[in-house]
Every structure is written in C-alpha cells, then in structure tokens.
C-alpha cells in the first residue's frame, strides 16, 4: 500500500492543530484543516495568518513561503472531506472517548492507504489504532508548543504499526522541518514523561511554600539554562492541559506517586485561572507576554 505523503488533513485547529497545519502548508504540502464549527475554524485560520505574518516580520520566513502556505491551506467543517488524505493528524480535545470516536469515523471513510496520526500528549496510541479499525496505519505524532518554533516531534510506534508507515511518518516529520525522535507507546512518551512530573513537583514546591514562583523559575532558567522556568511554562502550555495529562495518568496508575495531581493545580483550574489563554494563571498575561 502507498505511503507517500502529499496531502495532510488536520482535525482540530486549537493552538497545536493550527501550528501543525501551518508548518505542513509552509513545507508545500496540501493541507485541509477541519473543525466542527465555522467559528473555531475561523479562529484557527486567523491564528495561522497571524503567525505567518509574525514570522515574516521577524525575518524568519520569506514572503514567498508565506504566500505558498496560504495557497496550500484549505479548510472544511466536514470530516468526510478528509477521505483522500495521505495522512490525517488529530489534534482535538484531550479526551480519549472523543479521539476514539473520531478515529472510528476516519477509519470508515478514508481511503485504505491513509495513515492516521494523533497529537495526544498522554493517551495510548494503540487504543486509537484499534478504534480506527486500521491499527497498522496508526502512529503518534506529538508536536511541541509553539509548534512553529519548537524543533522536535515524537514519532510513536505501537506494536501494530507497520514498518513502512513508521518510516513514511519519520520522513514526513523531516519534510516539515522537525527532528523526529522515536518513542514507544508508553505514558507521556519521552518528553512529557519527564516534563510533566517535573512541572507537578514545581507546583508542590509552591504549595509547600519552599520558594516563590519567581525564584523557582529563575532557578531553572539560570541554573539549568531552560528557556522558561516551570511555573511560567505551566502558564504557557496552560494549566488545564497539564491537569488533564496528570489526571489521565492518575486514573490509569492510581498507585504511582509520580502521577499525583497537586491540589493547587486543581484549584487554579476550577477558578478558571488557566494561564496564558485566560489572561491569568500563576502569573498575569497579556496575549503571549507575561505582564
Ligand atoms: N508563531 C510565530 N511567532 C511566534 C509564535 C508562533 N507560534 N510564538 C511566539 N512567536 C514570536 C513571539 O511573538 C515573539 O515575537 P516578538 O519578539 O516580536 O514579541 C517571538 O516569537 C519570540 O521569539 P524569540 O526567539 O525572541 O523568543 P524566545 O527566544 O523567548 O523563544 C520560545 C520563545 C521558543 C517559546 C522559548 O521561550 C521556549 O522555548 N520556551 C519553552 C517552550 C517549551 O518548553 N515548549 C514545550 C512545552 S511542552 C509541550 O508542548 C508538550 C505538550 O504535550 C504539553
């Protein structure tokens, strides 16, 4: 079966999905972006246009590539329009039920050669492969926020993923300008397995009053050379995202203390202090900038 990837579908145009659609279009691939409601689609497309303009303004992208990307990008509110894609990447809400239902629908309507990728942060890729009815053509494709600037993508192979599918997806990752690292289908793959418990521990330090948020951040920025300290990074990736990852693991592995959810994280999300997108998390934000 064919594994050439020329046309890519992206389902879900939130922060991650819009970044993924954008880099694919910038690489000259045909891209169709799908959201179930026109308003979400418009918001995601607006984000892509804004990001392309910013990259041009900063001299990181030529005007010709900006024009190419806009010409390569189409959109739809219908999943059925993905039928002839070579690769469909889901980047919808972090809910295994919703992701499995989407994969089942895609499995029923896409051409036999379509490869399915999931940008999940934490759920088993094999479960989605089963739902699609085509486990040999399912991979994890986990990008990092902001997708346009972060160089990595984790390519996750399940025990069922076909070897040629895995190779094709590694080639795709390089074609869109990312460095692929290979990961098994384990909780959090490589990066989140290390990063998310670290972020949880930073919240527990705050809870215990061991240090201020500014000092925790300065510690890791200046002591370890991280571009952002953990408390700022929590706001940046958004607190509900980290809560849903940790909660999902806590549900699956209730006896593992690594995955324990800090109470302060629950409280902040319950109050709607979600980080950058709500203007307030541990810090106050104005757009992409900390006040
Ligand atoms: N598109 C275009 N431009 C963007 C952008 C985007 N998506 N996002 C930010 N920019 C722009 C900003 O607007 C800013 O422009 P300005 O200077 O005109 O205001 C500029 O990029 C910032 O670029 P700089 O090179 O000057 O800034 P930095 O060197 O601070 O880099 C950063 C920014 C790349 C975000 C850096 O701070 C960083 O690497 N932070 C850590 C991010 C990280 O760890 N991400 C992983 C999160 S974990 C994850 O995603 C997994 C998930 O499953 C939870």
In short:
The protein contains 11 helices and 10 strands. Strand 4 (87-90), helix 4 and strand 5 (115-118) form a beta-alpha-beta unit. It has 291 residues and is an alpha/beta fold.
Main features:
291 residues, alpha/beta, Rossmann fold, N-(1-d-carboxylethyl)-l-norvaline Dehydrogenase, domain 2, 2 domains, 8-stranded mixed beta sheet, 11 helices, 10 strands, 47% helix, binds 3-hydroxybutanoyl-coenzyme A
Structure description:
The structure is a single chain. This protein has about 290 residues and is of the alpha/beta class. The protein has helices spanning about 15-25, 40-55, 65-70, 95-110, 125-130, 165-175, 190-210, 215-225, 230-235, 240-250, 265-270, and strands spanning about 5-10, 30-35, 75, 85-90, 115-120, 140-145, 150-155, 180-185, 285, 290. The mean pLDDT is about 95. The relative contact order is 0.10. The strands form two sheets. Strands 3-2-1-4-5-6-7-8 form an eight-stranded mixed beta sheet, sandwiched between helices. The chain binds 3-hydroxybutanoyl-coenzyme A. 3-hydroxybutanoyl-coenzyme A binds next to helix 2, helix 7 and helix 9. 3-hydroxybutanoyl-coenzyme A binds near residues 195 and 227.
Please state the second-level CATH architecture of the largest domain: 3-Layer(aba) Sandwich
Q: What's the shape?
A: globular
Kindly estimate the percentage of residues that lie in beta strands according to DSSP. 15-25%
How would you classify the quaternary structure?
single chain
Order of helices and strands: EHEHHEEHEHEEHEHHHHHEE
Arrangement of strands in the largest sheet: 3-2-1-4-5-6-7-8
CATH names the topology of the largest domain as: Rossmann fold
Can you count the helices? 11
CATH superfamily assignment of the largest domain? NAD(P)-binding Rossmann-like Domain
**Percentage of residues assigned to helices:** 40-55%
N-to-C CA distance? 53 Å
CATH secondary-structure class of the largest domain:
Alpha Beta
What is the arithmetic mean of pLDDT?
96
What bound compounds does this protein have? 3-hydroxybutanoyl-coenzyme A
């Amino acid at each position: 079966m064919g594994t050439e990837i020329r046309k890519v579908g992206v389902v879900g145009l939130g922060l991650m999905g819009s970044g993924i659609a954008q880099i694919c279009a910038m690489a000259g691939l045909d891209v169709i972006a799908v959201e179930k409601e026109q308003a979400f689609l418009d918001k995601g497309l607006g984000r892509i246009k804004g990001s392309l303009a910013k990259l041009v303004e900063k001299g990181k992208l030529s005007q010709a590539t900006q024009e190419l990307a806009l010409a390569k990008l189409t959109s739809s509110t219908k999943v059925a329009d993905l039928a002839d894609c070579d690769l469909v990447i889901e980047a919808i809400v972090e809910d295994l039920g919703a992701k499995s239902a989407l994969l089942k629908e895609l499995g029923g309507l896409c051409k036999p050669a379509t490869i399915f990728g999931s940008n999940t942060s934490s759920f088993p890729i094999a479960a989605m492969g089963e739902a699609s009815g085509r486990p040999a053509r399912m991979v994890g494709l986990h990008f990092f926020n902001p997708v346009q600037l972060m160089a990595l993508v984790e390519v996750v192979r399940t025990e069922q993923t076909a070897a040629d599918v895995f190779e094709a997806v590694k080639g795709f990752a390089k074609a869109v300008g990312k460095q692929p690292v290979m990961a098994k289908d384990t909780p959090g793959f490589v990066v989140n397995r290390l990063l998310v418990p670290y972020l949880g521990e930073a919240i527990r330090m705050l809870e215990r009053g061991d240090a201020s948020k500014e000092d925790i951040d300065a510690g890791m920025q200046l002591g370890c050379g991280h571009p952002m300290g953990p408390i700022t990074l929590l706001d940046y990736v958004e607190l509900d995202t980290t809560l849903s990852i940790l909660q999902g693991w806590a549900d699956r592995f209730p006896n593992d203390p690594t995955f324990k959810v800090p109470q302060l994280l629950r409280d902040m999300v319950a109050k709607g202090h979600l980080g950058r997108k709500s203007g307030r998390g541990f810090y106050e934000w104005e757009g992409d900038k900390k006040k």
